[in-house]
Amino acid sequence: MKRAVIILAALALGACDQQAEGEPIVRASLDDPSTRAAEVDPLPPEADEGPAPTFASACKPALFEGVPLTHCIADPATHRIQTALAPNNGENFGTIESWRARIEASDIAFVVNAGMYGDDLRPLGYFVRDEDRLVEIDNGSGSGNFYMKPNGVFFGGDGTWRILPTETFIRTVGTRPSFGTQSGPMLVIDGDLHPEISDDGPSRTTRNGVGVDKEGRAHFVISDEPISFGQLARFFRDELKTPDALYLDGNVSSLWDPVTGRSDEGRVGPLLVVERK
User: DSSP assignment, residue 232?
Assistant: First the structure.
């Protein structure tokens, strides 16, 4: 899906939603080292994407309260999840397309943006890639969606994926996960909607999030048309029955589904990569 207007908005606003009453915008200071990721290894040379996948898509269309959505499921029995960073240099930098041109795609089920980022395209908040912590957890206060407490962390390893509010994560998780990304706000917390999200607020844009159900499957949802926070949160709670769900971002929400050929062009930074085992 080509969304030129979305791309322009993402470049101008640093990957956060347009401001509306009750839904503030992240304004991260890039002078604060806590908001920066560590230097990452140089990206490998561009690789051949290989043959087209022969398996079925993990993503299906959905409709909720009149809004078309795309719903992708990662099953721990058949998938693994890892994080990645879109290139911050080179041709078409900061896109899923630029990232996928440098990897072998034959085992990838789908890829989505993994959360919010600064002007340097590096993640805001906790970010772990291959057990390497690139950004420390951010438990501070500030304005914007990221700082709508409670925010949370999506994390896990081989076969076990969880979403926890940030405070709970700090108190209870002592071992570094294989992957992790911090974002905010939480959409659903132990079966309840985030207390500061209105039922149907005035701010509407393309948005995406992730929830984990009681069977341990991760549900990734991206809106194909503008949606409110309340609608997205209710879809996770009422339709997908996920006890916990985390907002990832808006405006820049992007999906790559190799099976269907969908490749959104939004400017992204951190990525969640779902692979077939």
Answer: H
